[in-house]
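From the pipeline queue, job 12 of 40. The input is one protein chain; the requested action is below.

Action: predict structure.
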Amino acid sequence: MHFPGKKLILFDLDGVLLNSKRNMELSWGAVCKRHGVNIEFEDYFSNIGRPFKDILDILNINANQADIEKTFNDVSTQLIDQIELYEGVESVLGQLANNNIKIGIVTSKNTIKTQKILDLLGFAFDIVQTPNDALKGKPAPDHILYAMSELNMNASDTLYIGDMDVDYEAAKRAHVNYSHALWGYGTCNDKNVIKLENITQLLDIILNE
């Protein structure tokens, strides 16, 4: 299966462009220590891709949510050096742009952290969607639909690349094609979904007939 003719590629950030697991683990450790939270990192990690507050709700952490989120984000920002790009990301983004394909981010990572990371990357994305009060986070399709609308793209023009169930669900609900990053943090059991072994394979399914 190939997707020639796509005009917009939207990427999740964590687990697709960035390996941020160590950063998240250290940040969650700080949350547990500072706020007396007794929940293992893997329980938090299994829910990533959703907005942070939604994860706290799932984990039944109902008190001090704003303070907990601030701690997590502050530590995560301080430890930005614990985040690394996956191999091939910069090259693939450049080649997509050279082929006049628009490129965007749809992430549940907050705006400040996302911008710091993108500043390090130094690539000019056409749109970057981070959590806000106006749009529902994944697995809702709102951010994908908004990105398409802002860039004047149709569902048939668009491909979303993710690594978690919420990414798959958001793409499905937005009626856009989805490809799964096997190097990321989650699995996809849909046999009809193209599963990428590495990011460079994206070029094969986009640029080759």
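Job complete. Residues 21-35 form the longest helix (15 residues).
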